[in-house]
Write a structure and sequence with these properties.
ABATE; ABATE_dom_sf; Zinc finger CGNR domain-containing protein; Znf_CGNR; Jann2411-like fold; two-stranded antiparallel ribbon; globular; 6 strands
Length: about 180
């Protein structure tokens, strides 16, 4: 499974593990192994935790609550009590354990529950931080990825230039060539 980390925040990348929500709804966390792999690639933990079907269901529940939180932060409706309760319940657990080895390398270890706790906590902090004003949604018609716009002018339109931005620029180029020919 290919994961992309272009959002600028781990929670926004996690929300994007469902791609094209409004059209094809492409699920990127199809198996417990996908979840464990994502947690490592996102640097939530260093080694894949043991994950089962119950962990996958919990991870998807958290992801949907975080998606609702991001929608709310970007001008959507207020959070329901059920979503607030879900986020609070996941955030109540301890996150991954940090340790440092003799070479100064920091290691993160933990279970799926601990990894999901970190994601929930980061989501709640995103809601508290001023950076939530920088959350944008990709302008590509089928992309539903949120991202942090840290550009100087705050006019970034695409989740990433290697993904939607390149496609949009190529389509615009083809359209100009077709109209000019």
């Amino acid at each position: 499974m290919r994961f992309e980390f272009v959002a600028g925040h781990v929670v926004l990348d996690y929300v994007a593990t469902v791609a094209e929500r409004t059209t094809t709804r492409l699920e990127r966390l199809s198996t417990p192994e996908d979840l464990a792999d994502w947690l490592v690639k996102a640097r939530v933990v260093d080694t894949p935790p043991t994950a089962g079907e119950a962990d996958l269901l919990a991870a998807r529940q958290l992801r949907e609550s975080l998606y609702t939180l991001v929608v709310s932060l970007t001008g959507g409706s207020a959070l329901t009590p059920a979503v607030r309760e879900t986020l609070t319940r996941f955030a109540a657990h301890d996150g991954p354990r940090l340790s440092i080895d003799a070479h100064g390398n920091v290691h993160r270890t933990g279970t799926v529950t601990q990894a999901l706790a970190l994601l929930a906590q980061e989501g709640l902090l995103l809601a508290r931080d001023e950076q939530h004003d920088s959350i944008r949604w990709c302008a590509a018609p089928t992309c539903t990825r949120p991202f942090l716009d840290r550009s100087h002018a705050r006019r970034r339109r695409w989740c990433g230039m290697s993904t939607c931005g390149d496609k949009a620029k190529a389509a615009a180029y083809r359209a100009r060539r077709a109209n000019g020919a």
